Amino acid sequence: MSDRRPYNQSTRAESQQRTQEALLDAADEEFYAGRWQKTSLEALAARAGVTKQTLLRHFGSKEGLLLKALIRSYSQVQDQRWSAPRDDVGAAVDNLLDHYEAWGARSLRIGAWLHEGPPLLAKLSQAARQVHYEWVEYVFGAWLANLDEQARERRRAALIALCDVQTWWLFVNDLGLKRTEIRATLIDMIEGVFASSANTAPASESGLAAQNQSRHDVH
């Protein structure tokens, strides 16, 4: 009997984890689709394949479920965004596009909360913006640090705008660009931001190849 108990406890813990994840997924879907206020506990539980009582046992209330869902989302975004290599334009753009392809629609909704949502959601929206600003400083920090204060602030502002979800949305939905085209365009634009600072300008792999070829041609 003693040999079976750890197995049973482990199985039970895994089952509870799956239940929680299913409920969090249901909360995410309803919340970001704009249906949260109208969605009942019964509907959320049914979407996750459990009962209302199970939902309440795990999260205590509808508000408790939403709070945990938002915390999970924030943690997932942090982990993904900060996995980007530093000082590599191409890798930074890949990380950015991966994020927007998974979170773009939700990011737009979160951004709208800043001026249209209740105070709690407005704070969440501001926090999301701050994550974006810090990401820009993280991946491009080495180049920004070498500039004087005025130049650094101008280029930081340009990078924040170029890497914003609204820019990605424009490329995808208004201009109908494919990922490869968006990637190349963003790399060109980001490298252009630093073009006037030749000694500190970042370069993608293609940019480095072009520079090396240019040096070879000169010699």
- Strand proportion, as a percent range, falls in under 5%
Mass-distribution shape: elongated
SSE string, helices as H and strands as E: HHHHHHHHHH
Estimate the mean pLDDT confidence: 86
* Total of helices: 10
**Main sheet attributes: strand count, strand direction, barrel closure:** none
Summarize the structure.
The protein is mainly α and 219 residues long. It contains 10 helices and no strands. It starts with a helix and ends with a helix.
Keywords:
219 residues, mainly alpha, Arc Repressor Mutant, subunit A, 2 domains, disordered C terminus
What would you note in describing this structure?
By secondary structure, the protein is mainly alpha-helical. 79% of the residues lie in helices and 0% in strands. Helix 6 crosses helix 7 (149-162) and helix 7 runs antiparallel to helix 9. The protein is elongated and about 65 Å long. 21% of the residues are buried.
Secondary structure: elements and pairs:
Elements: H1 4-32, H2 41-48, H3 52-59, H4 62-81, H5 89-116, H6 119-145, H7 149-162, H8 165-174, H9 179-193, H10 205-218
